[in-house]
Amino acid sequence: MLHSPVDRVAEATPRAIAKRFRGLSDRSLAWLFVAPTIVLLLAVNIFPLIWTIRLSFTNFRVNRPNAEVEFVGLKNYISILSDKDIWLTMQATAHFLIWTLVLQVLIGFALAYLINKKFRGNDLWTTIIVLPMMLSPAVVGNFWTFLYQPQIGLFNYAVGFLTGADPSSFSMIGDVTLAPWAIIIVDTWMWTPFVMLICLAGLRSIPDSIYEAAECDRASKWRQFWTITIPLVLPFLMLAVLFRGIENFKMFDLVVQLTGGGPGSITELTSINLKREAFEKWRTGYASAYAVILFVTVFGLASIYVKALNKVKQR
Amino acid sequence: MTRFFDGLLHFRRGAWEMLASVLIAAGVFMLMQPFALVLYSWSFLVTLLGTVMFIIVSHFPE
Question: Membrane spanning segments where (chain B) (predicted)?
């Protein structure tokens, strides 16, 4: 008598097929199932990476496929690492990265803390706050360009209303000092909800009993916040910083839509600069070396960050 | 501090991972700092050294 679905499937399998697979161990079967994924990963991740590293030592140009490709050694790397313009691009990326992370973490955590309280319309507010994250970066970039218009922009009008300044006296995306902040504001507006959602998951995972025990011990709200809430939310917060850090390091679409890297090259982040080298100047070998430098940087940072995250989780 | 050097001498993971992490952090700082071009020029080598070291030492015993 056949009891389980497994028995029924085994019985229904044609004898020829069953005979072929009967001799396979569990390990072999596991490999059989995992192999397609491994092959796919090798094809779409590892092979391009190795190919990029190989190209980074050559003068290959993709728009001249028939030209002779020469091995240039470390020339591309030396050229990138002594280029003052790329150094400025790195600084612009660092400025963008640090400020977006600080603002998104602070505002995202504060919003999560507020949303975690029980009040009327809680779900509606959560939905409204999360909306920017669901929009396409191209759409966000376009409508913030309108919001930043000196003559008709709502942002300029609001700043003028609050500070008394003439709204048309400043241009957020046309001014060298304001443009870096313009992209930081938009990225913060768009991605703070993501940090908020992760923090909210962390806050909701803290059992009420811990707070009740702290109340019994007469711990103040301030002390509860620093000794219960923050340590228990920290792994979630670190995860959010990791995701946003990696994403913002390679930020491209939003900034291209907003400023296109300008005015001048003040908001030209590394990914925009890399795209220019690869697909406007067609210096494929050079751009490959540039990509390898960025990859090693992000990989190294992510490694130590994941180690720190595991340590916090173990505590 | 003695424990740290002891870990380095006996090829313990914790101490070597710490050293690799410091190298990576220093490399990233050198890459993005606005103070000296020479630091920027050497940043990749430091980051690469730290990253490769991190991958190797993460297989050391605890």
Answer: 15-32, 39-60
